[in-house]
Structure formats: structure tokens, C-alpha cells
């Protein structure tokens, strides 16, 4: 009997130092995610695991994956390690545990960390029934709807890291899936801002995009949907007023610049249109003048000699034209020599070829200009130049 007790005591002493988990000497580490446990698709996230200063190695396990999922050496001063995920995708969504190693053995596993990825589906719609204004101490129903057939909905409250409510969906009258969340009792000293997500129960850590936020207004004793004027609310109200003022100023400045840009563009278009309206009549006017000048001064096909140097020469040309008109049937090649006077000294004689066509055009009426006259013989006249 004494031998058995001695053997058991020795066995306990030998096993105790090698299994510190059973001895309870190593506390379990703490695990958390930054910037949070609900991460939008393709955004970075970091998982931290904090243990003791004696830790030599940290390991991270993901449920459903090969263990260990990742391992890291501790950072200075040695009580924690960092596990980085550069881009959040569906494969990183899940439940994680971490633990660490010291000289005597491994620690316990940490509490689970639910790492959720959002943005996998279209956002659902969230509404308050019957109204977002609720009396103090009362309850309100929030309805979350989805048209793509979500079979589970998650309701979150702003400021809380964990999901507030999770419900399976129910079909509504329109064939969509919905869930009704009862929230309350409501107190006026808190802000109640909610969003909802949809997911598939087979992938509980892969959520849809968040719905538009719904803020519930809690009415005070007077029935007005306002919070009591505590110091915290006054400071929050001042901060919100400053933020709203800054945002409104930025929006008004952007609106002013847009109006100026639109005004400049409109003025430019109007000036361009006015310039085109001014140039088009001038162009048509020039084209009309060109056509009128071309019709008024046609070039004759048969070139005749035109002399318009002086009145004496014009009278002499008229005499010669009259003589040429009177001779209606001259023989071809006949030359008429006209001597102005017989002088003692010899005079230079200049021959001018007169075209019957030109002479007749001058004597006929303008209505006959369009007719094509027959070919006429040429008449030569001698002009004496003194």
C-alpha cells in the first residue's frame, strides 16, 4: 500500500511540470482583431494574440483548417504576436483561437474570435415599425428584408463589436425573405443606430453589405423625441454641430464651384452660338455678291477690241461701228481702209479688228443676250493716230 502511494506521488511530480495546462500555471491568451472583427471585403485586418512575457512562440488556429493555421515569434517585449491578413476574402472568414508556448509547455487556447467578411451580397433594407420614434421604456420592431433569398439576418447596434441579434429569415407576402427584430426597452440616454446584414447559414461568417442605418428617437417625458440635456449629450451635440457645419460648408463651397463652372460653360456656348449667327449672314452675303458680279459681267466667248481712252476715240469708234453695221454683207477677208485725211507727211496706220458679234451685241436689246448668235466675219478698220 505504501509502495503504491509512493509510486503515484512520483508519477504526479513527474507529470505536473510537463503539463502546465493541467496544473493551471499558464493563463489563456487574449485574442482580438484590428480594426475590428467585421471587415469589408478586400480590406486589411490584423489578429493579435497576447500572452505572457515568457512566451517563445505564438500559434493561431482556424476552425476547419489544418492546425496550426499560422505561427509567429513574439514582438517586443514578448507578450504578444501579430498575424496579418493583407486582403480580407471568404477564405479568411471563420472562427480563430490562439495559444502560446513557454519553456514548460503550451498554454490554453484563447476564447474564439469570429472574423466576419462583409460585402459578399447586396445590402438588405431595414425599417422601423410602426415608426422610428419610440416612447421611453417602450419597444420597437425592426424589419430587415432581402430580395436575394437570405436565410439568416444579423442586426448590429452602433458602438457594439459583437452582433446584437441573429434570426433565421421568414418569407413575406412578396416572396422576399425577412426577419423581425424586437428591440427594447428604449432609454433616452443612449443613441440607437442599427444596421442589418444577410447571410447563408452554411457560411455564417460571410455577410452581405450593410443596410442603410436606422436611428431610433426616444421621446422624453414631454413626448418630444429628444435626449435629456446631460453634459455628455451637450458635448456630443456640439461636436455633431461642428461636424455638420464643416460638412455643410464643404458642400456649399463645392456647390458654388459647380455653379461657377456651369455658368462659364453656358456663357461660352452662348458666345460661340452668337459668333456663328453673325458669321453665317456675312458669308451668304459675300456668296450672293460673287454670283451677282459674275452674272453682270460675263466674259464674251469671242474677244473683240474695246477702246475707251477718250471721247474722240469713242466717237471715232461709233462712226466705224455705224459703217460696219450698214455693210451687212461684206465679203470674207475684205479690209476697209479708212483715211482720216491726206497729209503731206506719211502717217502711221493702225489696224483694229472689229467683231460683228460684239458690234451687234451693243446694238441689240438685252433680251437677246441669251440667244447664241451665228458666226460673223470680222471687219478691219484703219485708225489714224496723230
TrEMBL record:
The keyword Signal applies. Pfam families: Ig_2 (PF13895). Keywords: Disulfide bond, Immunoglobulin domain, Membrane, Signal, Transmembrane, Transmembrane helix. InterPro entries: Ig-like_dom_sf, Ig-like_fold, Ig-like_Receptors_ImmuneReg. Residues 214-236, 288-336, 362-386 are annotated as: Disordered. Residues 1-23 form the signal peptide. The chain crosses the membrane at residues 256-282. This is Leukocyte immunoglobulin-like receptor subfamily A member 5 isoform X9. It comes from Equus przewalskii. The gene is LOC103554716.
Amino acid at each position: 500500500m505504501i509502495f503504491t502511494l509512493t509510486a503515484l506521488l512520483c508519477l504526479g511530480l513527474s507529470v505536473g511540470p510537463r503539463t502546465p495546462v493541467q496544473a493551471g500555471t499558464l493563463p489563456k491568451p487574449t485574442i482580438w482583431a484590428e480594426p475590428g472583427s467585421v471587415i469589408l471585403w478586400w480590406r486589411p485586418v490584423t489578429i493579435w494574440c497576447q500572452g505572457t512575457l515568457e512566451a517563445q512562440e505564438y500559434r493561431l488556429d482556424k476552425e476547419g483548417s489544418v492546425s496550426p493555421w499560422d505561427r509567429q515569434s513574439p514582438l517586443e517585449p514578448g507578450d504578444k504576436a501579430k498575424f496579418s491578413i493583407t486582403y480580407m476574402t471568404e477564405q479568411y472568414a471563420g472562427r480563430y483561437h490562439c495559444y502560446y508556448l513557454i519553456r514548460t509547455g503550451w498554454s490554453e487556447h484563447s476564447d474564439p474570435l469570429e472574423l466576419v467578411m462583409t460585402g459578399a451580397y447586396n445590402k438588405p433594407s431595414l425599417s422601423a415599425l410602426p415608426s422610428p420614434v419610440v416612447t421611453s421604456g417602450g419597444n420597437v420592431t425592426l424589419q430587415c428584408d432581402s430580395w436575394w433569398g437570405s436565410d439568416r439576418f444579423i442586426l448590429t447596434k452602433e458602438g457594439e463589436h459583437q452582433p446584437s441579434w441573429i434570426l433565421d429569415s421568414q418569407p413575406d407576402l412578396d416572396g422576399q425573405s425577412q426577419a423581425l427584430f424586437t428591440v427594447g426597452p428604449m432609454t433616452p440616454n443612449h443613441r440607437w443606430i442599427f444596421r442589418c446584414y444577410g447571410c447563408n447559414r452554411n457560411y455564417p461568417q460571410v455577410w452581405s453589405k450593410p443596410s442603410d442605418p436606422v436611428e431610433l428617437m426616444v421621446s422624453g417625458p414631454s413626448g418630444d423625441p429628444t435626449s435629456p440635456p446631460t453634459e455628455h449629450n451637450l458635448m456630443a451635440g456640439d461636436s455633431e454641430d461642428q461636424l455638420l457645419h464643416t460638412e455643410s460648408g464643404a458642400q456649399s463651397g463645392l456647390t458654388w464651384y459647380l455653379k461657377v463652372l456651369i455658368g462659364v460653360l453656358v456663357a461660352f456656348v452662348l458666345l460661340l452660338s452668337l459668333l456663328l449667327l453673325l458669321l453665317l449672314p456675312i458669308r451668304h452675303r459675300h456668296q450672293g455678291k460673287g454670283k451677282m458680279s459674275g452674272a453682270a459681267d460675263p466674259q464674251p466667248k469671242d474677244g473683240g477690241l474695246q477702246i475707251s481712252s477718250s471721247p474722240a476715240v469713242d466717237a471715232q469708234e461709233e462712226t466705224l461701228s455705224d459703217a460696219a453695221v450698214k455693210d451687212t454683207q461684206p465679203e470674207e477677208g475684205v479690209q476697209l481702209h479708212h483715211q482720216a485725211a491726206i497729209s503731206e507727211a506719211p502717217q502711221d496706220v493702225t489696224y483694229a479688228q472689229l467683231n460683228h458679234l460684239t458690234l451687234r451685241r451693243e446694238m441689240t436689246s438685252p433680251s437677246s443676250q441669251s440667244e447664241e448668235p451665228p458666226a460673223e466675219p470680222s471687219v478691219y478698220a484703219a485708225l489714224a493716230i496723230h
